[in-house]
Please model this.
Amino acid sequence: MLATAVLSMLLLGEGIGLNLLFVAVPASLAAFFAARAAGRRPRAWTVAWAAGGLLLLLVPTLRDAGWPTFLAMVSALALGSLALHGSRTWPGVLFAPFGLFASVGPGIRWAVQGIRARADGSRDRWGPVVRTVVVATVLLLVFGALFASADAAFADLLGGLTPDFSVADGPWRVLLFLVGLISAVAVARTAAAPMRWDRIRIRPGKARRRAEWALPLIALDLLFAAFIAVQLAVLFGGYRKVLAETDLSYAEYARQGFWQLLWATLLTLVVIALALRSAPRGRTADRTLVRSVLGTLCTLTLVVVASALRRMDLYVDAYGLTRLRISVAAMEIWLGLVIVLIMAAGALGAVGARRLPRAVAASAGAAVLAFGLMSPDAVVAERNVQRYEESRKIDLSYFRDLSADAVPALDRLPEPQRSCALEGIADALGQEADKPWYATSLGEARARDLLAKRPPTADYDTCRRLGAYDSRMLDGSY
Model:
């Protein structure tokens, strides 16, 4: 726990990168030792959650974009909470992260009591340890300073490996130390005495008659089937006929449908949850009817998901790819995966129902990890560069807000478009030129190397004429 606090103080003040892993590893070890001392033993799911949380922290190490990094950090916290609590039910999966915050106050008291209990009569044991650490620190400081003053290359190496902060950073570093220490204490205390969210029981809903719950769902199945039939007719009949009959443009038709279909997917999950609470469960015929009606609804919803993604693809072809568009498309894909998991749980019966909460949580963590590792900013830049090569249409102003992950793709543009597209990213990297290695992502390091070899050269007038300072090509609605 103390190592976590010290590393937080030394490493987290410069930014986010590999330092998150450096801080998370000792915190994980503190949780492991605390759990073992309390008599808890790691299970397969515990190891899986912990490994998944640490893997998610690779995203800020590899990618520079802030939004996938934020999602990865939140997801890592959620998976780490599941590892500490060992949750397996819906209340456990949903409420586990709150257990960490509830352990802050009790964790501090727990740590103080533990230190007092172990400090009595242990001066002879702790004295040699303290003296050893002090002597080693003094020797490293003295000889490190001598070697650094004797050789400039060694001084540069030493300066790059060690944190650099001034006296003015003292309050900020103290705050980071306290945050790291309190967080590590809360993690360790949760591992030793987790909150038992799985003991919360959700009362099943009142079972309804077959006609009362089945007829509305059958009607909804028929509505879904009719919509899908129209979609198939449009697919084989071509979009030109539809556009002529509806007076919609190509992009309006695609944009109009995507958001509605996304909401339809979300509401379908709500309908399925409510239907499962009120469906009769006593007889085999009732359970068969539930699986048939809801299975049909899930299957039709998957077709709706495919239709929504097709609409997004049409809109991207017309107006290009943006961060928001790739994000909502990724969310739609994950919702489709959740529906598949629900269908699998229904096929497995009671066993599938018990495994569904952890399967959904695991799919969410895997989706966030895949989303971050795919480098969405790089995908956005790559798609728009391809669009420019095919149609000569591009919005240079949009690239100014992208992260360093987009630099390799934008570097393929011809001049002066390349310089205008990279100008904003280069300025942002220039303002963070003094970031240490442990707070620099791999994407940022690669971007710096490319920009150092070929810095932007276009002037302001040229970029303004090309639209680099105003959005002209993107629709702007989303």
